[in-house]
Structure formats: C-alpha cells, structure tokens
Write a structure and sequence with these properties.
heterodimer; A: alpha/beta; Rossmann fold; eight-stranded mixed β-sheet; 11 helices; 8 strands; about 15% strand; B: Alpha-Beta Plaits; two-stranded antiparallel sheet; elongated
Chain lengths: ~300, ~90
Amino acid sequence: MSGEPCGLFEYGHRACGGCAAALAARTILDAAGKDTIVVSATGCMEVFSTPYPETAWKVPWIHSLFENNSAVASGIVASLKKQGRKEKVIALGGDGATFDIGILCLSGAFERGHDFVYICYDNEAYMNTGIQRSGATPYDANTTTSPAGKCSTGNRRPKKDLPMILAAHGAPYVATASIAYLPDLKKKVEKALQTEGPCYLQVHAPCCTGWGFEGEKTMAIGKLAIETGLWVNYEMENGKVTRVKKVVRKPVEAYLKEQRRFRHLFKPSRNEAEIAKIQAVADRNAERFGIDIKLKK
Amino acid sequence: MTLGLGCSAKPGKSKENRTGSWRTFRPEFLHEKCTKCGLCSQVCPEGCIGEDEEGFPVPDYDYCKGCGLCVEECPSEAIEMKKEEK
C-alpha cells in the first residue's frame, strides 16, 4: 500500500462509475504488492487506466497488443530469470484479448511453462469497442454483433470453457473468482503468484454499461451470477477441482431479469423455451461442480 | 506535449484527472449508523474512501464518481445518496 486507500492503482482513471474491472485491478494490485510487473493487453482496462500521458498504475506496467500479451509476459519472465531477479509478472487481459485474440500466445506461454500469472477480467464481450460478442459471451446475451430481434434471441453460442483449456496445458493452478467476493479474489491472486509455473485466474467482472444495469449494482449482479449457478467460483490444482463455492441456488431469471442484455427474454413476452435453456446451463454447472447446498427439510 | 521514450508516463499521473466532476449524486456518510467495518473502502472502484482518526470513512470527493456502490453494499445503511449541488 502507498498510504492512500487507492493503493497501487491511482485515482483519476477514466472507468465508468461502478466499474468492476477497476475494482479488480485495485484488488489484484493490493494482493500482488509493489514488486510486480504488469503486462496489459489492449482492452477497457488498458484504455481507462492509461490515456497517454496519464497512468493509474504505480507498478511497472507495459501495454502489449491484443494478441501478444502472454508473449510479452514470457519475455519479461525469461529476462528476469536470466538476471536472477524475483519480481512477479502478471499479464492482464479482458475476455476478448484472452478468449479470442490472445489465445495463441497464451497457449504457447502455458505450454512453455513460464512462471507468470495470467489474469482475465471477464466482462463477457468487447466492451471497450462497443459491446461486440466474444468467446466469453454467454448464451442468449444481446450484443451489437449478436443483436436480439425477430430472427434471433441473441448470442447463439455458449461461453467457451477457457479455464479447462488452460488446465489441459498442465497448468499447476487455474481458478475462477468474482469481484463480488473480494477477499476470495485476493487469496486466489496470492496463491497464483506463489505457485510456480503458469497460472490462470479468470475474474467475473460485471459491466454496468455493457450489460445494462446501474453502476451501484455491480457487486449484486456478480453475486447473483454465482447464486444462480451461471458463474462458478472454483480452484483447480494440477488439473483437479479442489475447491468450489457452494450456494443455495436461485432460478436463473433472478440474474437475467436485472440486465438489459437479457431483456428480450422477458419483453414483449416471456420466452420460456430460452429461459429453460439457460437454466439447463446452470443445472449442468451445478452437477459438474457440485455447487448445490442440500437444505435439510 | 513532448513524448517520452517508449511513451512512458509518470507512475500514478492519472491523479491529475479529477473525476469528481462526473458526479451527479454524492454519497453522504452517517456517523451515527456507521460501524466502521471498512467495507465501503474495500468495494470502491476508485479506492477513494479513506479513514479519519476515529476510523470513520472519509471519501475523497475530488475523485468520487458517485457510482453508489458503497451505498448499495453498506450493511448498516449508513451511506445515503444526495443530489449533487454545485
């Protein structure tokens, strides 16, 4: 900490009011401490935190391209190793940079086994450029490139399961977290940084502008995603799921109803068939990870 | 504006950008209800809620964007949103 509450992520960044990515950046830096080098792919976080000549970062920070985030991080890790230095390296990217554009270099870096942590703040679309769908966009979400209307109910494809893809690379530590549970996020960042080898952390970061809800609801929406089973917070060590956040599950519409990107499922009329499909996604998650708390009757 | 080598910038230079001017509503902290739990400070995306000597939260209105996240998350309902008057 630098003595001010903002810590290593300075005031004056230009994120929207109530931005989850800004909250994530601040929390991640809090957990990582000052001996950290951050590589940031292009994306919302990069744009709002560093409009030249300003920067909110108080640690060494480098902007990579969309696609070569992990390659730049790999180079830094290799150089630090050669010099015998102990700084930690964090590569930060949005879901577009991670799931779509940067997956080639990400896969390469994980395969080579560099000792760094890749953190994806997942706001489930390309928010910086105007809400285009990405590989992380959930089924039926309305985006500007998967618009809902007469002929479509929004995004046609399910969310890509990137944590599992990276676990399949033999990553020692892969975890998901949410800005709705900050102490948990901090713990996972610390654990990932302590673990040797390439680690991956995917942080659910609800976007008030892109998803269509008021800024003050950011954490509430994040909590609802977990409580409905549409987002699962878990940890994987050496390919095995070791810890999962259990919940008393709510029906998915509690989460969907709060967001403009799913409004077409309720207006002008309720689309039972599509809501049932999304409920099935949550049910599959619940079964796969065993998140349900059984209540005694 | 002169460009530095590799377009580098001074750490934390964004502080010159006072985002408090974005605000339309301001959070007001009610000491009589506050339990000093510190959650508001933790959840603030700006990180602009500090503490006074007694441990009560003190927001930095130069940077608070008035998002209301602290109001929503406060377990004691000790923060209220009031319309900004300038």
